[in-house]
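This is your field. Please look over both lines of this record.
***
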Amino acid sequence: MSDKHKYSYDEFKISAEKYKNVEFEAALEHTSFGKYNLALILVCGLTLYGVNSEAYAVGYVLPSAECDLELDTYTKGILTSTNFIGITGSCCVWGYLSDTKGRKNVLMISLIFAFLCSVAAAFTPSFWGFAVLRFCNGIFIAGPSAIVYAYFGEFQSRIYRSTAMAWMSLFIALALISLPGLGWSLLPQHINLQIFGLTLNSWRLFMLIISIPNLIAALAFIKLPESPKYLYHSGHIEEALQVLKTIYTINTGKDESTFPVESLQEKVLLQVEAKKNILRDFWGQIAPLFVPPHLKYSLASGLMQGGVFAVSSGVLLWYPDIINQLSHSASGNSSVTVCQALSSVDHGKVDLVGCIEDSMDDQVFIQNIIIGVAYLVSYVVWGFVVNFLGNRNFFGLCMIIASISLVLLNFVTDKVAIDILFIVLLTLPGICVAVINLIMVDIIPTYLCGMAVCLVMTAGRIGSIVSSSVVGIMLQWNCTVTFSLYAVNLMACLLLVFVFPKNST
């Protein structure tokens, strides 16, 4: 062979092409989807699992704690609202802190203090001590319950963001399943453990167990980096690039030197300088969300979140009572609609319940487990169909189906069909809470995203409070009109979704 046909191996090497001055979203797509994203789903999902367990736990322990804390109807009402008031009143503060101090730090600190408040409450012997600590717990779980959506979404490329968010949201369903399951198995037990001079009975042990996921999630966040998108938009461009390289290496198994992005676009630094005056105080963080171009998105998402919370959470609080009245209606075993069953109940009678512990009916646990399973199935469906339908279309489909279910409740008499309709109208708006948050994460700029999600979640919880306060009175006044108004409410949410761009993730 002549010398001109002899080639060394090096002559055939093709060096990986490197891109300079790359926009962040384009760079994020090069990290692919793999083990790193799955780890984030686990940690952020565990966060949602923990905060949702905390939010709904008190409702299960009230019968067991009745004698221990000397509860009456008035004090029970206080306990059911303290955690929720803490969540609603503090969420915007956490949004401000996450946008100015970082997502990771806020998540870690709030989860740790939520855990400490929950543990302290479990060992507190007095009613007022318990109520204050549950209020404080609500303050601290308000942060992660909203900010985790922003943190998680900022690690996901547009291609996988919706599907990944659906998988993370599965942990909400797992919380709704495991919480009544744990309560059903633990609360009726007669446990008496002496710790620090205090008797640790079944309901206190229940409160301790549900606080553990928050601690595990907080410890896991120590190992995770700050959101790369937050770092990028805060001017820490090299740190953001390093996080992207780490994600790339873990997902692909390749050395970080092969990451095709050499540098990120630096014009964002000018944007950061322009925004520093806005970030000086709390109002400066909120104000940009209520002026164009973000105003229409803030108002639309807030109204939508309030609408879906009004059904998924507000009506949910009355669901066991409605089913109980349906099964004990004056019509006996004859076929009746929900409204006929409710109208046959004598609302003037009030039964005085004595101090009886562990008296929650098994049916309450069963009903809530079924709803949790329905949430689980719905999130799985969302994960599979969202890339075909898009979030706007998926949200609209959920609103239409839930609205039809509300209307059908005025006519359906079969007990199984009624149960199915209730499950549909409670779960579909419920999963749309995450859909709305995802749309906001995609549209709102990073430096406002944490505050935006927190404001939207606050609007949702206000909708839940208003709904749960009036739905009982409205059902007694005119059941048919009530279900129809809730259907109109959901259809209004459907119309509002068209405010958002058609290409929303």
Q: What stands out?
A: Residues 1-15, 269-279, 346-355 have pLDDT under 50 and may be disordered.
